[in-house]
């Protein structure tokens, strides 16, 4: 999906060279631009098939915007100035010597270069030398990343929670045929037959994608009612987007994607170390490219990011231990199959029964009264005590044990009323009270790859422990695909992918096998989050306009939570408006 530099005119090359760290690679830093311009360029990626460089050119060449008039003309990022070029001047300046008054060559650019060298020395001493890593959080870099696999994008997006991303959306765009990544592990194996089969499966799944896409558009044209004032072109676009949304379940994790990434120096460094220690060769190569390009903008803060063999060794040791434990004890209990299982929650110890499931029901605890309006549960009272304890500290003047004494005297109704007062007037964009972050939940999700990629992008406060991509948990068939009679087309693609998956595993290439998993295949994920994040997630991804798969998961998650903490959700009208009117699970 990237754009080769040969496509640019000499003028365009000269223009782009001011603002990107290279014109040829799929990974490049973006600099010398106002923050709002960088945000616009990155925002395009979700809906536009063009590269970041192409979108930057369009912005700069748009005569109505006149963007060039307001942009700086530095040919390279200030912080990328060669240390050798400015070290002597910096040393002179450190000793108090004055710059030569001839100064056109040593005016602003020279002064900035000296400042950059001083900053480098500061970071070398305090960040690198003394480990004062918080300083690294004050510098940031923006990076365009193109042509990586969906598998690698998920590894990148889970590498550090403090990185910010926007990604190419398969819900709104059609990936071009042939735009997929061949796993380096497969290329290195030297097995022409397996490599040929890999290319064949990518063609088979893309053929299925196109057949489902066109079939869905025809089906939707027959069954979707026309909207008032909608032009034929607008209707076609709307139906195509609905079709894109479901046809993508036939595509594999090898399909390419583009991302815009912004992060501070510390988050970038930690993510690079994590990815350099990753088992996937594509991911380690991506980390090397990110390090190379970010070093041009933050020359000190990520320069020493290196692979950490202890990370790899620890993970391999844990994997061996888990395999041994599963081999010994897997028969103890059947594997749960419910898509949302509530495993733990604040206040769970208040229940007489502490099982994550009640009566063998794999959906989570069953509350005797929690589903009845106006009632509460022991679990919820314990969770309310956690929230109210924070408020008594924040807005009161006492402390423990006074806080516990007050909570012991308050009635359940009083606690619920105080909680309701804090959340009942929240608008759709209002942040919930911070005290809600003290109430925590842990769940196990079994979701499609399409759903998983949305969850990890839109739930940055959630902590995930995802299983590797696989085929053992079955697939999700979009309801519209089923209604249109296109499920057999999807299942033929799934079958081709699964047969190759097993061949690759038998050939000793399990990492390469992950690339042929489709977006329809399910994976198991443990997630840990707080009540604040649940409010955000319901508001953002529980509404009717949200994609149906993640909307279904969010509604199920909310219902599980309401079984143990009914009023923590029910007291917020903004949440109930979504949950009562969102059409759970329906596209």
How would you sum up this structure, described in words?
The chain is of the alpha+beta class. It has helices at residues 10-16, 35-44, 52-61, 83-94, 108-129, 150-157, 184-189, 192-223, 232-247, 265-276, 281-294, 309-329, 378-395, 402-409, 412-423, 449-458, 479-483, 487-506, 510-513, 531-541, 548-564, 566-570, 573-581, and strands at 27-30, 140-149, 164-167, 256-264, 340-345, 440-448, 463-466, 522-530. 49% of the residues lie in helices and 9% in strands. A 4-stranded antiparallel beta sheet has the order 1-2-4-3, sandwiched between helices. Strands 5-6-8-7 form a 4-stranded antiparallel beta sheet. Mean pLDDT is 83; it is low at 78-112, 352-363 and 366-370. The longest helix has 32 residues, at 192-223. α4 packs across α5 and α8 (192-223) crosses α9.
Question: What attributes does this structure have?
Answer:
four-stranded antiparallel sheet; alpha+beta; Gyrase A, domain 2
Topology:
Layout: H1 10-16, E1 27-30, H2 35-44, H3 52-61, H4 83-94, H5 108-129, E2 140-149, H6 150-157, E3 164-167, H7 184-189, H8 192-223, H9 232-247, E4 256-264, H10 265-276, H11 281-294, H12 309-329, E5 340-345, H13 378-395, H14 402-409, H15 412-423, E6 440-448, H16 449-458, E7 463-466, H17 479-483, H18 487-506, H19 510-513, E8 522-530, H20 531-541, H21 548-564, H22 566-570, H23 573-581
Short summary of the structure?
The chain has 587 residues and is α+β, with helices and mostly antiparallel strands.
């Amino acid at each position: 999906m990237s754009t080769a530099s040969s496509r640019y005119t000499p003028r365009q090359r000269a223009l782009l060279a001011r603002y990107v760290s290279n014109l040829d690679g799929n990974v490049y830093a973006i600099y010398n631009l106002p923050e709002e311009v960088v945000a616009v360029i990155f925002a395009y990626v979700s809906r536009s098939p063009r590269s970041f460089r192409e979108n930057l050119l369009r912005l700069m060449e748009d005569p109505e915007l006149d963007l060039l008039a307001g942009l700086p003309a530095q040919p390279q990022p200030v912080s990328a100035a060669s240390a050798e070029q400015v070290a002597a001047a910096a040393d002179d300046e450190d000793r108090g010597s004055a710059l030569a008054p001839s100064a056109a060559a040593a005016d602003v650019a020279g002064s900035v270069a000296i400042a950059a060298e001083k900053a480098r020395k500061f970071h070398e001493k305090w960040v690198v030398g003394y480990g004062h890593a918080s300083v690294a959080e004050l510098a940031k870099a923006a990076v365009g990343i193109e042509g990586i696999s969906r598998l690698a994008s998920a590894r990148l997006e889970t590498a550090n929670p403090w990185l910010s991303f926007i990604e190419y959306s398969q819900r709104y765009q059609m990936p071009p045929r042939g735009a997929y990544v061949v796993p380096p592990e497969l290329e290195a194996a030297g097995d022409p037959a397996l490599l040929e089969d890999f290319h064949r499966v990518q063609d088979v799944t893309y053929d299925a994608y196109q057949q489902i896409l066109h079939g869905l558009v025809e089906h939707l044209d027959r069954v979707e009612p026309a909207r008032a004032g909608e032009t034929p072109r607008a209707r076609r676009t709307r139906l195509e987007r609905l079709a894109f949304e479901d046809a993508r379940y036939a595509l594999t994790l090898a399909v390419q994607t583009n991302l815009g990434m912004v992060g501070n120096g510390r988050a970038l460094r930690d993510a690079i170390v994590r990815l350099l220690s990753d088992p996937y060769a594509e991911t380690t190569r991506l980390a090397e490219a990110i390090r190379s390009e970010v070093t041009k903008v933050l020359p000190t803060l990520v320069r020493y990011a290196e692979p950490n063999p202890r990370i790899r060794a620890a993970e391999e040791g844990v994997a061996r231990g888990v395999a041994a434990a599963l081999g010994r004890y897997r028969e103890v209990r059947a594997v749960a199959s419910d898509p949302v299982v509530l495993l733990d929650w604040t206040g769970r110890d208040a229940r007489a029964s502490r099982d994550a499931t009640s009566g063998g029901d794999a959906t989570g605890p069953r509350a005797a009264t929690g589903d009845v309006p106006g009632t509460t549960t022991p679990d919820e009272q314990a969770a309310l005590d956690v929230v109210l304890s924070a408020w008594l500290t924040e807005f009161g003047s006492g402390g423990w044990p006074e806080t516990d004494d007050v909570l012991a005297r308050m009635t359940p109704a009083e606690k619920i009323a105080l909680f309701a007062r804090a959340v009942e007037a929240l608008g759709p964009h209002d942040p919930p009270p911070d005290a809600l972050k003290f109430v925590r939940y842990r769940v196990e999700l079994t979701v499609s790859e399409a759903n998983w990629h949305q969850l990890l992008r839109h739930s940055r406060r959630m902590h995930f422990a995802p299983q590797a991509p696989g085929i053992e948990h079955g697939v999700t068939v979009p309801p519209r695909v089923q209604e249109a009679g296109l499920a057999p087309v999807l299942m033929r693609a799934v079958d081709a992918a699964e047969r190759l998956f097993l061949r690759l595993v038998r050939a000793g290439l399990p990492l390469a096998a992950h690339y042929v998993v489709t977006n329809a295949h399910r994976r198991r994920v443990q997630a840990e989050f707080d009540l604040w994040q649940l409010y955000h997630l319901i508001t953002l991804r529980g509404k009717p306009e949200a994609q149906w798969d993640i909307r279904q998961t969010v509604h199920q998650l909310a219902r599980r939570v309401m079984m143990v903490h009914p009023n923590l959700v029910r007291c917020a009208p903004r949440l109930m408006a979504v949950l009562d009117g969102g059409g759970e699970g329906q596209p």
